[in-house]
Design brief:
It is built from 15 helices and ten strands. The chain is an alpha/beta fold. Helix 5 (123-138) links the parallel strand 6 (109-113) and strand 7. Helix 2 runs antiparallel to helix 10 (236-253) and helix 8 (190-199) crosses helix 12. The chain starts with a strand and ends in a 5-residue tail after the last helix.
Length: 341
């Protein structure tokens, strides 16, 4: 029997992260007679659960690479929500490079992080590969038109750093680029924007500028909310309450931009300019989780990419992973005004 509602997340704009910061997730757990724990505040013995998602009582909102990899390896999870927040994805080149668009990436050496100890922890590699694949596609090219050069990354990150990696440690390859060992790297997020300015790196391809969401699909777009099946089956009201508080936090965020930015600065260890550059002026208005047909289709695109490039142990049926009822019930709860205040 689950005695603790566990929560893990990445330091990026999420309604659940805001609900946690406001204390609302802990209130939901307490009202259900459960303890509340955050993996980022727990000991290293729990670190792997951020990736494996095999801890009973765990709800996770984070990058989709570990979530999809865990499901493919047989972890008993269900997908209960998807969010979409663009995070300043870009291909960077050196200060003196003449690359001015996606078609000019042809023939370049592109920096891609090496494989980590397993597929889930190899999300930096997956992010860079998909980012380059999307940029090349804009220029009518494929990964076959560039030379992949492996760049360094942590091979055994613990949850205290790895869970934060999707938010700020997204500048793998900067040193190699500055040394001239590679010609281009993929970056995303608040800290990446600051690093680019610090080193005078140039944006060769701004992936956020394309109107096609398909070409912006990556580890954080869309971002899944997953739950251990045991918690959903044994305490569905807790899962519904978690989602209701996330929806409530998304409503709150829509009218509190500066407060949301203050939370993100703490989470990403970035300054105000980095947060603004990464997320823009209107991201706070659309933090609500959804299981719309469009978002499910987009996570399906990511699943296929990851399977094709060896990041999933096996393919699986996406629709059987989706549990729609908890989010539907959570919306009803918020609309009725019965969410714990």
């Amino acid at each position: 029997m689950t005695e603790t509602l566990w929560y893990t997340r990445c330091p990026v704009p999420t309604a659940s992260g805001l609900a946690n910061s406001l204390g609302w997730l802990g209130e939901t757990a307490g009202a259900a007679g459960l303890e509340f724990g955050v993996l980022q505040d727990a000991g290293p013995e729990l670190a792997a659960h951020h990736f494996l998602h095999d801890l009973s009582g765990l709800v996770r909102e984070g990058g989709n690479v570990p979530a999809l990899a865990a499901r493919a390896q047989g972890s008993p999870t269900r997908l209960i929500g998807l969010t979409w927040i663009d995070e300043a994805q870009a291909i960077l080149v050196g200060p003196d490079a003449e690359v001015a668009g996606p078609a000019e990436l042809a023939g370049l050496r592109v920096g891609v992080p090496a494989w980590a100890q397993d597929q889930a922890r190899s999300f930096p590699r997956a992010m860079a590969l998909h980012g380059f694949a999307s940029a090349l596609r804009l220029g009518g090219l494929t990964l076959a038109d560039v030379t992949v050069v492996e760049v360094g990354t942590e091979r055994n990150p613990q949850v205290r750093t790895a869970a934060r990696a999707e938010g700020r440690m997204t500048t793998w390859g900067v040193e190699e680029l500055l040394r001239g060992e590679v010609d281009a790297i993929y970056v995303k997020g608040a800290r990446a924007q600051e690093v680019a300015r610090e080193h005078g790196l140039r944006v060769a391809v701004d992936l956020d500028a394309t109107e096609s969401k398909r070409l912006r699909v990556n580890n954080g777009t869309p971002r899944p909310i997953t739950v251990h099946a045991d918690l959903l089956e044994s305490r569905p009201e807790v899962v519904i309450g978690f989602l209701a508080q996330s929806l409530r936090a998304a409503d709150w965020a829509a009218g509190n931009l500066e407060a949301v930015r203050e939370v993100l600065q703490r989470e990403t260890l970035s300054g105000p300019e980095g947060v603004v550059a990464a997320y823009g002026e209107n991201f706070h208005k659309d933090l609500h989780p959804s299981l719309s047909d469009e978002r499910v289709e987009l996570i399906g695109i990511q699943k296929q990419f990851l399977y094709t490039h060896g990041f999933l142990a096996a393919d699986f049926d996406l629709e059987s992973w989706v549990a729609r009822e908890p989010l539907e019930r959570a919306r009803e709860l918020v609309e009725s005004g019965k969410v714990l205040a």
